[in-house]
From TrEMBL:
EC number(s) from the headed UniProt entry: 3.2.2.9
UniProt xrefs under InterPro entries: MTA_SAH_Nsdase, Nucleoside_phosphorylase_d, Nucleoside_phosphorylase_sf
Keywords assigned by UniProt, alphabetized: Amino-acid biosynthesis, Glycosidase, Hydrolase, Methionine biosynthesis
Name the UniProt record assigns to this protein: adenosylhomocysteine nucleosidase
Length: 107
């Protein structure tokens, strides 16, 4: 709920959904199709958050993953990585700051 309210407050585009995490870089339609065969509602694939999610789950700690997705494995990018990096850094900073400010107000 916190992340979603901050997204609305900042008027950012965001997707809430299943993120698959693994030890392989997904770089094409075929690997993505294999993942979607098992997880048809997957919204993103990444390589870092699963360990964090697992530890939080074990300790009953709520968590949120805030990701900037730079490309989609089965389509062409409409922006260079360098262009995206500027946008992603700005939006991620805004998002995390908004979340921290909201949490600080709650005490």
């Amino acid at each position: 709920a916190l992340a979603e309210s901050c997204i609305k407050q900042l008027d950012l585009h965001a997707v809430r959904g299943l993120i698959c995490s693994g030890d392989a870089f997904i770089n094409g339609a075929e690997p993505l199709a294999r993942i979607r065969a098992t997880f048809p509602r997957v919204a993103a694939v990444e390589m870092e958050a699963a360990a964090i999610a697992h530890v939080c789950h074990l300790f009953g700690t709520p968590f949120v993953v805030v990701r900037a997705i730079s490309d989609v494995a089965d389509s062409e990018s409409h922006m260079s990585f360098d262009e995206f990096l500027v946008v992603a850094a700005k939006q991620s900073t805004l998002m995390v700051n908004a979340m921290l400010q909201t949490l600080a107000k709650r005490g």
